[in-house]
Structure formats: C-alpha cells, structure tokens
Specification:
This protein is an alpha/beta fold. Helices cover 45% and strands 26% of the residues. Strands 3-2-1-4-5 form a five-stranded mixed β-sheet, sandwiched between helices. A hairpin with a 3-residue loop joins strand 1 and strand 2.
C-alpha cells in the first residue's frame, strides 16, 4: 500500500505518491482546477489516483502562515480534506507545507528548467516535498 501526497492550490493540485515500502516520494501529475470553488472534478481525479496506486493514506499540505497561524487558504484546505475523506473513505493527514513551493522552485531553477516550463512541475515537486517530509518522519 502507498501514500499519496497533495499540494492543494486554488488553480492546481500537485500529486505525488510513495513507493510501496514508503521510503521515497515520486511526482505523479498536476491536476488543473477549472474553478476554485468547485471541488467535484478534483476530488474525482484524486479518488481515481488513490485507487490506481492502491493508496491507504493521503498527506495533504497545510498552508500555515510563517507565524503558525491559519489563513483563508488553510480554511479551504481543511474543507478539501473533509470532502476528500467523505468521498474516498481514506484517512487524510494535514502536513505543514511552509516553504515547499519555494524549495520546489529552487530545485527547478538549479535543474535548469526553463522559466515557462517550471509552472508545469512546481506543484508536483512541492507535493513530493510534502510527502517526503511525512515519510521521513515515520523512520
């Protein structure tokens, strides 16, 4: 069984998955959201991926402010978590995602990925960092 990692944003959702031994995280895809206020298609795609990869747990990035408070984006993330648990029946853990997008952007710059192509990968890499942080905490 595997663990799915998600970087939930207003326009996209980065997706990563663990290996079966839960040691490493790999990028899967970026789900593009058509409307920030509609979750049905996003939830359906996450549910498809969870079945495809035989996922037993989902780790969802929690966008806390730098002073550890929760803002508007965090409230939307909590709503998404609750909807995802209801729909999929899979437990969802919230994981602090502060600076993961910054770190993902840095990795892409250091890897010489062209600026116009970075947006295609930054959410997936952020999801990898979120999931890898969780997996590392298990050992």
């Amino acid at each position: 069984m595997r663990v799915l990692g998600l970087d939930f944003g207003s326009k996209t959702v980065g997706v990563a998955v663990s290996d079966p031994l839960k040691i490493t995280a790999q990028p899967v895809e970026t789900i593009t959201r058509k409307d920030e206020n509609k979750l049905r298609q996003t939830l359906a795609r996450v549910e498809q991926l969870a079945k495809e990869y035989e996922v037993e747990l989902i780790v969802l990035g929690m966008p806390k402010n730098m002073n550890n408070t929760l803002g508007d984006r965090a409230e939307k993330t909590i709503e998404f978590k609750e909807a995802l648990e209801r729909r999929s029946g899979i437990k969802v853990i919230l994981w602090d995602e502060r600076l993961t997008t910054v770190a993902a952007e840095r990795v892409l710059v250091e890897s010489n990925v062209r600026r116009e192509n970075r947006k295609d990968y930054v959410d997936q890499i952020a999801a990898v960092f979120i999931l890898q942080g969780y997996l590392d905490s298990l050992s």
